[in-house]
Amino acid sequence: MLALSFPEPGISALAWIAFVPLFLAAAGASPAAGFRLGFTAGCAAYAGILYWLNIVMTTYGKLPAAASAALYLALAGYLALYPGVVIWLARRCESKRIGLLISFPLFWVAGELIRSYLLTGFPWANLGYSQYRTLPLIQISDLTGVYGVSFLVAFANVVFYRIWVSMRHRERYPATALLLLLLLIAATMGYGVIALSRPEKGPLQQVLMVQGNIRQEHKWDPAFQASTVATYERLTRKGVESPGTLVVWPESALPFFLQSEPAYAARVKALAADLKSYLLTGSPAYDKEGGELRYLNSAFLISPGGAVTGRSDKLHLVPFGEYVPLSSLLPFVNKLVQGIGDFSPGKAAVPLDTANGKIGVLVCFEGIFPEVSRAYVRSGATMLVNITNDAWFGRSSAPYQHLSMTVFRAVENRVPLVRAANTGISSVIDGKGHIRGMTQIFEEATLSAQVRMGTGGTFYSRYGDIFALLCLAASIALGAESFKKKTFRVKRHL
């Protein structure tokens, strides 16, 4: 049920009851048995959510099917450790008469926060992301981030579990817990309705996302460089309707170094000048440091005058996709994604200046990391631009899962987010989380829209993951309490 609550098919209602069977199975179990049950459930969930990794590793990473399956199951197993530990700790707390209603939501959010940073972080499919289309519910993200939504859904799972048990075993109906859940939902939805009714105040900006649909096997082949540039030129000239448009090309739309390809650079600059529009394009870059070259996954901004006015470098790289962690210890491990050599991370979140404000560029899966978007907004960005190449996901659920998470980046910071993807999904998301337009995958397309630049300054933009950190602190306190004295097995939850 948890896997099915995420796109695709995205049956978000399932997330509200997905843990009930797990709670039923773990009721009365020892903490060790609770861990095994949580781990088993986690393996099922994450194996279902991340099945598309096999497409990446076999089709584009050229790994044998057996090696791909082993790595895929290893990652699912790693992620399954989190629900395993959560149920283990929850069972220990129940032995201290600290009920699931208190422990589970706190432990779950703490686990999501840890997962977002540990081992470079992989916050894919946090529980709250399943609700990305329920706009009144997710508006609290400008206070709590996605973690507030995760907490509410986790809390609801415990309440529905207790209702089920009370009916099956004729125990006392959890009226207080249900009332508390209804109050939380009412407060959250009420806040959301008010937030959605507030007028947006920023200046308008015309944007054009260009989706070239360049095949992954052609992308880095020098024989296709001219046709790739010609495709983006053709689509851009057809799509720009007025001067002053912000044209966005995807990640690595130019699969060569713009810095050292004068002929192609001149063509791209001339295009921006002819259309009198800003052009943001993905391209690898390099810097020289101490006699050595550092390669970067970057975006260049070209002004309506035809000059490169800024560059934004990717800060959070994909391990084994853009670099190999501990490469000196793992010389036999190669990157899975074709391209140039190992990338280095950018040094700072540097927004790029346009006539209507600054834009913060999120390259590829940087869109799933709230702290990266927040860093750009705190540095003055009033629009977020996500450029990505989701071609290596194939025709799978991954592009839809990727899109769903970027909705929260817009709501958290109250800035629009526009997204240009090589093979889709390109989209426009306003500062309230409305998806104002989206393309189909694996089609040549352009998407034009007017967006209103944000004003930033949300509680979340200023203070970050305060809510999740409080959940983590409370979880540490609960965990410490559960280890104070010898635990005893209980037959029923509280």
Question: Keywords, please?
Answer:
494 residues, alpha/beta, six-stranded mixed beta sheet, 12 strands, disordered C terminus
Strand order of the largest sheet: 5-4-3-2-1-12
What is the chain-wise order of helices and strands? HHHHHHHHHEHHEHEEEEEHEHEEEEHH
**What is the structural class?**
alpha/beta
- In total, the number of strands is 12
Q: Please bin the fraction of helical residues.
A: 40-55%
Instruction: Work out the helix count.
Output: 16
Largest sheet features = 6 strands, mixed
* Low-confidence blocks of residues: 490-494
Mean pLDDT: 93
Structure description:
This protein is of the alpha/beta class and 494 residues long. Helices cover 43% and strands 16% of the residues. A hairpin with a 2-residue loop joins strand 6 (352-354) and strand 7 (357-363). The longest helix has 30 residues, at 65-94. 50% of the residues are buried. Mean pLDDT is 93; it is low at 490-494.
Summed up:
Helices cover 43% and strands 16% of the residues.
What is the fold's blueprint, element by element?
Blueprint: H1 20-26, H2 31-49, H3 53-60, H4 65-94, H5 100-115, H6 135-138, H7 141-144, H8 146-168, H9 175-197, E1 204-211, H10 216-219, H11 225-239, E2 246-248, H12 262-275, E3 278-289, E4 292-302, E5 308-313, E6 352-354, E7 357-363, H13 370-378, E8 381-388, H14 398-413, E9 417-421, E10 427-429, E11 435-438, E12 445-452, H15 459-463, H16 466-482
Parallel strand pairs: 1-2, 2-3, 7-8, 8-9
Antiparallel strand pairs: 1-12, 3-4, 4-5, 6-7, 9-10, 10-11
Helix pairs in contact: 1-8, 2-4, 3-4, 4-5, 4-16, 5-8, 5-16, 8-9, 11-12, 13-14
